[in-house]
Model the fold of this input.
Amino acid sequence: MSVTIWLQLFLICLIGAMSPGPSLAVVGTNTLSKGRMYGISTGIGHGFGIVIWAFLTSAGIAKIIIETNIMLILVQLLGASFLLYLGIRTLIDKAGLPIFQQNKNPASSYFIYRAAGEGFLISILNPKIALFFIAIFSHFVQPDSEWSEIVSMGIMAGIIDTVWYSFIAITITRSGIVPFIKIHERLVNRIIGGFFIFVSLYLFITLSKNLL
Done:
């Protein structure tokens, strides 16, 4: 592919990563509630999920998932359930914000893997990401496309996504909002947890209406 096409794909992937949604909310929440490293790890896991979606789309599997009602419903159900879990966890989480102690207490491997796992799940369980890649990659992936090009496109999409959400995590922890969040921690947890629960219930209701 030409440099112009690669630049177009780069800009489209960047805009897609920057668009607000559950992914941004999860990365921001994890950063505020668990610290910078947790937020960055969430972003890395999310980027890996983006790579998976890119490869599935290129292989045509994502289109099958979207067009198969049972598969689509299952993915939507799991996604809504995961948001509900995050909302309840945020509401009942009594741990303080470790942002100011993150240099004193390095994150454990389990801590990192759990954050990456949450980022990966919110990415892979979001059918809208599949729709995005089907709409975009259908214009770039051709029957005669080489696998090296397809792999490079998927990796680029994942790197862009990871860098963007890592930037979000770093920006949040370096901004003046952190002291305010620390002071009003319980209120913020209730608002964020309530938001996740509201979104998950909305998704459940929408899903139930579509089934009727």
Q: What stands out?
A: The chain is about 80% helix and 0% strand.
